[in-house]
Design goal:
single chain, alpha+beta, three-stranded antiparallel beta sheet, 12 helices
Length: 252
């Protein structure tokens, strides 16, 4: 995971490339080091990112009004478990992902309790079980991700994101709380490089600056590893073989 240590290391020339800068998760820290001129914003993928609460499409039959968050909240008890009843359970990512789901629940006055999964794999295991039984589930998800290549589902639509939502209680529907909004939609996915790279490795920098992936590209890549069980190197070889026209345009 990217953090301040990664960006500091890039500024010091110890890390040369960060190949996936997600706006929602790392945008602020990345933009700070770009402003310091020690990191270059080298490329922006066509892929758009989003990190949000998500549910399988069959849940709409059980909870009319979705994907609106107020409709979800009206159905909260339907998502309850033994540990959260009568409140619904939202299955969040690991605690150290710092997604502020509990703050959102409080800010929007939702009848949900956040239960953090121990890992991404634990989320996918619960989704697979719920999907097989057509059981109600709402959990943290993101795109691009292999999930969209396997399951049909939608993100919950919360009040539109604004920077003021994070630290200005006066912004948003709750005048006394922050985080009363959703996450950014259509966030960028960028490549960042150490500012010394163009001079030290100009050809590599030229290739990197042309790289461009779509959501489907990334979903297929991740599926090869996470679902099909390939080793990373094997999956990379397959993707390169299947997409020669795309990557040849980068190296030419």
């Amino acid at each position: 995971m990217q953090n301040s240590v990664v960006h500091t290391s890039m500024c010091e020339g110890d890390i040369d490339v960060v190949h996936e800068v997600w706006q929602g998760a790392f945008g602020v820290a990345f933009e700070q080091v770009v402003a310091q001129d020690c990191v270059i914003d080298a490329a922006t993928h066509d892929a758009k990112t989003r990190e949000e609460w998500w549910y399988p499409s069959y849940v709409e039959e059980q909870c009319p009004g979705l994907p609106d968050w107020e409709a979800l909240n009206a159905c909260a008890e339907m998502f309850a478990t033994a540990e959260t009843a009568p409140k619904g359970r939202f299955l969040g990512g690991p605690v150290d992902w710092l997604k502020h789901d509990a703050e959102r629940v409080e800010g929007l006055g939702m009848d949900f309790e956040v239960v953090n999964a121990g890992s991404a794999a634990a989320i996918w295991a619960e989704l697979a079980s719920a999907f097989e039984r057509k059981a109600p589930i709402v959990h943290f998800n993101w795109t691009p991700n292999f999930i969209e290549a396997i399951y049909d589902g939608k993100f919950v639509e919360f009040p539109e994101y604004d920077e003021g939502c994070k630290d200005d209680p006066a912004w948003g529907p709750n005048p006394d709380m922050t985080h009363d909004c959703g996450n950014p939609k259509d966030g960028y996915l960028k490549i960042g490089v150490w500012n010394g790279m163009p001079d030290k490795w100009p050809t590599a920098y030229a290739i990197i600056s042309k790289m461009n992936l779509t959501n489907l590209d990334i979903a297929v890549m991740s599926k090869l590893v996470d679902i099909d069980g390939m080793e990373v190197e094997e999956a990379a070889d397959k993707w390169l073989a299947d997409n020669e026209a795309k990557w040849m345009s980068w190296v030419n």
